[in-house]
């Protein structure tokens, strides 16, 4: 009987391109598809390959470049060398985009970014401009993290003081264990607190009941399971939280550099970034428009997967 298995065409195979920074660090970028190049930037705690279900139907027209930020996904073993991780990620993306443009012989390409990845894009635009990007899909992210007298649309909005206190408490409790190699070696009560705070953040990121049920199922750790849980990214996540709390990220000054078309995809029920304040930024941009998904929270791909795919497809066709 003939073997019915066959190899997928190269364009349908997920591959990894390694891109070296000026300092010699090798950054992994997942690549899939066959067509015009597109870059997508993932969120805090996310693996870039989680975009795959949304882009697979588009692989015949586009080649997707999915960088993995240091400390996450395929780059989970690559450490930060700067405290300001957003600054370092923007530097890394500058290296990645230059490589892609050179390899594909293009001057610019579209970019879509969600949450932390979108914050990195606001940082990139402020420092490097928009010459390498033709248009931008900003997914539920303000360019301002800390609330200020003239801006109350920072992370968690009017709950910012309360939530930042929770983050500060967990950062302070984990600092004495910063050099402990394995999560399993932490005191059980601390492991429980870390995972509880992560679950809280994840639940605040979604709005739909089904999404909340999925988060609960994926993040629940009974005592036995938690005792042996190998949380490989916990130290990196704590470093990122430290920076979020300490650095007054505000990239509004770079708005004047963003002259390319921008689509701001906003979760109408977002508890992380107030939809009304996100629309204020859109009004400041010369070529921007809002798309509000009324039932979605911050994690748009999870709350509204079909709408997210549809919006991505429309964005790429503009």
Automatic annotation (TrEMBL):
SUPFAM superfamilies assigned: alpha/beta-Hydrolases
Domain AB hydrolase-1 per the UniProt entry, residue ranges: 37-305
Record-linked InterPro entries: AB_hydrolase_1, AB_hydrolase_fold, Carboxylesterase_BioH
UniProt keyword annotations, A-Z: Hydrolase
The keyword Transport belongs to this UniProt entry's keyword annotation: no
A Pfam family reported for this protein in Swiss-Prot or TrEMBL: Abhydrolase_1
GO molecular function: hydrolase activity
UniProt name for this protein: Alpha/beta hydrolase
